[in-house]
Amino acid sequence: MIRAGAGQSSIASTEQAAEQAAVEAMGQAGISRADAVVVFFTADHAANGRILLSTLTRVTRSDRIVGSSGAGVLTGAGEIESQHGLAVLVISSDEIQTRPFLFQPLRERDEEVGGKIAQTLAAAPDRASLLTLFPDTYNGQPQQLLSSLQDKTGFVPVVGAGSSEAGMAQSTYQVCGENCVSNSVAGLQLSGSFQALIDITQGCQPITEPMIITKAEKNLILEIDDRPALEAFAEVLKGPLAEDLRRALMFIFVGLPADPDQQTVGPGEYLVRNIIGLDPVKGIVGIAGEVKEGQSMIFTLRDGQRARDDLNQMLQRQVQKLDGRRPAFGFYFNCCARGSSLYGMPGIDTAYIGQTLGHFPLIGMFGGYELAPLGRKNHLFAYTGVLALITEES
Asked: Of 8, 99, 137, 344, whose Cβ has the fewest other Cβ atoms within 10 Å?
């Protein structure tokens, strides 16, 4: 049986916040000792990292603690943004084995660290496995890390987010056991008898039909459908966005299929990449990611109402997968560009999750990017929410 509980606190005192959130989580789980503890916290609490971890150990009677700083935190009770926040999930189960880990330094060692993570994983082909990862956003190249990990282990589903902060600390923090550090990657492997139901919701929606990149160089799109890329970009701009290109880059993005050889772009099955530069003379569009000639692409629009619609569609897919079951617990990794900055008010994502799926232990954070599988490969996402639901094995 899987027992889990989640709690949160907005108290400024790290010790009081950790105690409040952990006591709430332990009470919800109905346990006296946790097998594993996941904690997400705003960077305000990092200066008291030792107090944070010792308090969690005392309350949960477990030193198997792992987690990360985030620009905000969340549980099923709601989202905490723009203030002190701390969220705790506790897990106890004879069906799930938990393996927390931390590797440092991360900077310029993504491929090596991916190999080291692979060496620590419990390999059991007949057992379910889910890997949660929290790499330092400022010091890592997550796609290299994911590629290295998959090269060593084959496909193991990964969910997670880049450790983040609200912009004041200029550092992110990863925790494991007694350690609270930066320039590292923390994570937790779940293995055993359970099911992980994973889906994503995009904060951007397509505003064009699929087009073909007919000329490209690294991250530069030179031509789309045999004409200057900037010309194709300009055609999608309407109203005020057509009058202010700088503002347009805050709302219009490029969507790429997860497989560069894929000619179709299915609903939600694309990777959003920022447009980082325009060359009016040469007609070039530069994006935050490499492209290749012959690859499909779409232009997407970041919009609160479209994001709500996509979130609802994702939750309906999860309802179908659950088929009447209640999640034992769940993770929700939300982009720091979603939340109140997307909707104009806080708490929309967790409210939709609770309304659709009911009450269950849920924990998450607002990250610098999101990690999730698409097909049989793990990818880096942006402007996305990743929902992983853990259920008893059916």
From this structure: 344
Q: Per the structure block, which two tokens stand in for 208?
A: 């064009």
From residue 211, give the alpha-carbon distance in Å to each of 207, 208, 316: 11, 8, 29
Buried/exposed code over 11-48 (b: 16+ C-beta within 10 A; e: otherwise): eeebeebbbbbbbbbbebbebeebbbbbbbbbbbbbeb
Residue 341 region, left (φ>0) first, then alpha (ψ -120 to 50), else beta?
alpha
Which helix (DSSP H) or strand (DSSP E) does residue 176 occupy?
Answer: strand 174-176
Q: What is the rounded CA–CA span in Å between residue 66 and residue 112? A: 21
Task: Round to whole Å and give the CA distance between 282 and 285.
Answer: 9
pLDDT tens profile 339-359 = 998 999 999 999 999 999 999
Query: What domains are defined for the chain?
Result: 2-201+307-392 (no CATH), 205-302 (2.40.30)
Could you tell me where the DSSP H helices lie in 301-389?
Answer: 304-322, 340-343, 348-357
User: Within 10 A of 336 (CB to CB), how many other CB atoms are there?
Assistant: 24
Task: Please give the single-letter amino acid code of residue 183.
Answer: N
Name the phi and psi angles at 58, rounded to 5: -65, -45
- Kindly report whether the global pTM for this prediction surpasses the value 0.90: yes
For residues 229 and 275, give the distance between their C-alpha atoms in angstroms, rounded to a whole number: 12
Q: Residue 286, Cβ neighbours under 10 Å: how many? A: 17
Per the CB < 8 A criterion, the answer to whether 85 and 206 are in contact is no
Q: ∠133-138-311 over CA atoms, to 5°? A: 55
Chain segment 62-115, per-residue pLDDT in tens: 999 999 999 999 999 999 999 999 999 999 999 999 999 999 999 999 999 999
Q: Is the pLDDT of residue 168 over 90?
A: no
Model confidence over 376-393: pLDDT tens digits? Answer: 899 999 999 999 999 998
